[in-house]
Amino acid sequence: MAGVSGDRKGKKDDNGLGTALDFVLSNAKLVLGVGGAAMLGIATLAVKRMYDRAISAPASPTKMDPAGKRSWEEPSWLGSSPRLLTQDMKTNTSRSLQTLPTSPNAFEPNAVRRAGSRGRGGGKADLQKARLRFSLQDKLWGFYRRRVAIPEEEQATARRAAVDICAELRNFLHAKMPDMPLREMYLSGSLYDDLQVVTADHAQLMVPLILEKNLWSPIPGEDTIMNMPGFWLVRRENLEYFPRGSSYWDRCVVGGYLSPKTVLEAFDRVVAGSINWPAIGSALDYVIRPVVPSETLTLEVQYEVDRRLFVDFLPLVVIGDAVTLVAKPHRQAERYENLWRQSFRAAETARLRGLDQEDGGCRGLCLKVAKAVCKLTPSLHRLSSAQLTNAILLLSEREGDWAQDALADRFLQLLRELVGHLEAGRLPCALAPNVNLLSELTPEEVDELGYTLYCALSEPEGLLRTA
């Protein structure tokens, strides 16, 4: 609750009320749960901030509070959370905070220029907001240099380890199963797109299957009884003319459909059960072991004493030139075990990079900072790179200023957008709006994410300190 309780430095003696409120806020989540704690936190925050303003108000209206502290996002909470606030509470909170600045343009990139051009009255408030913005800008850049950016030498070493593993797997599969119809395997992931953060610890080994066009038919998930946009079925066809056994992949058919779970299990028996990884690791001077349990087939590679790389072995099916389906199971895998997940990653990354190249923007930088915050903050682990990427792409459709010096503004705006998507329970894919990228989250996870981000709006620097 650090983001809600605020900074009490520089405040006058409040006879213990502030301490009591801080205690209530810090323990509310344990008693009331996520949603209840957020409701109590916002209501208590309104009273606490109003009380603090009353006891610390300067004698002269032209003097600033010596502490110089002011909340980033107090006004933007008003009426913004139908999930977490009742209508009565929104009304009461709005009345309590009427004296606070409410301009939506408080943190626009030209705020300093506007503040400097105005007179002594409102100009000081605008200048204070601009200073807060620049303070966050400096902290974001410092966080990027200190925690987000990965040294090129570390990335290059991790890529070499991934290439070595890929070569060993390719040679083994060709020798052990020469009749298995596969296209050339290749490495992918954020390690190869300059979007990996914190540490170079993850890569994906893509394994394209070759399917006979006259034997297999892809079906979009929204066209099935399950109504699952973003997922596909791959149905076995023409059994009357080409009985089972006509295709190598018939052994992975479940209920008439090619099962990604069964495909992964088949590769697992080979990769995890047949390959002598200790011997290969000894020859490469690595320690290699399969990760158990794992949603996908994953190898852990210790290539230096203090460095590890996790390589996901990911079978995929390519449909035409535009659709890529990967064997990454739905979170309710037991219910949807025949569903293949459509991957938009390559197209999303290309669009993000293309937009930045057009205007010299900070979208990629903002994404990397957000990814690092989520990776280093346990309560935000469920926010994926795909969700963050699409939130930025959707924001780019409405926001045109992505200059490097607008990083603080766009980061704050991204937090607000994420809170809005979580409250609505829907984050559409920028490339396929019918796909809801939040559909696999549980209500409890949505509340936990929304609560953390909601609190962070009042003090975004807290996310960087927590990370």
Automatic annotation (TrEMBL):
Q: What positions does the domain Mab-21-like HhH/H2TH-like occupy?
A: 362-449
**Chain segments carrying region Disordered:** 58-126
- Which cellular compartments is it found in? Mitochondrion outer membrane
Its main localization is mitochondrion
Nucleotide-binding listed as a keyword: yes
User: In this record, what's one Pfam family?
Assistant: Mab-21_C
Which segments show compositional bias classed as Polar residues? Answer: 88-105
- Which cellular component appears as one GO term in the record? mitochondrial outer membrane
Q: Under which name does UniProt file this protein?
A: Mitochondrial elongation factor 1
Keywords of the record: Membrane, Mitochondrion, Mitochondrion outer membrane, Nucleotide-binding, Phosphoprotein, Transmembrane, Transmembrane helix
Q: Which GO terms describe its molecular function?
A: nucleotide binding
Q: Which residues form the Mitochondrial dynamics protein MID51-like C-terminal domain?
A: 154-348
Does this entry carry the keyword Lipoprotein?
no
The membrane topology term of the UniProt record is: Single-pass membrane protein
Its BP terms in the Gene Ontology are:
mitochondrion organization; positive regulation of mitochondrial fission
Q: Which residues form the signal peptide?
A: none
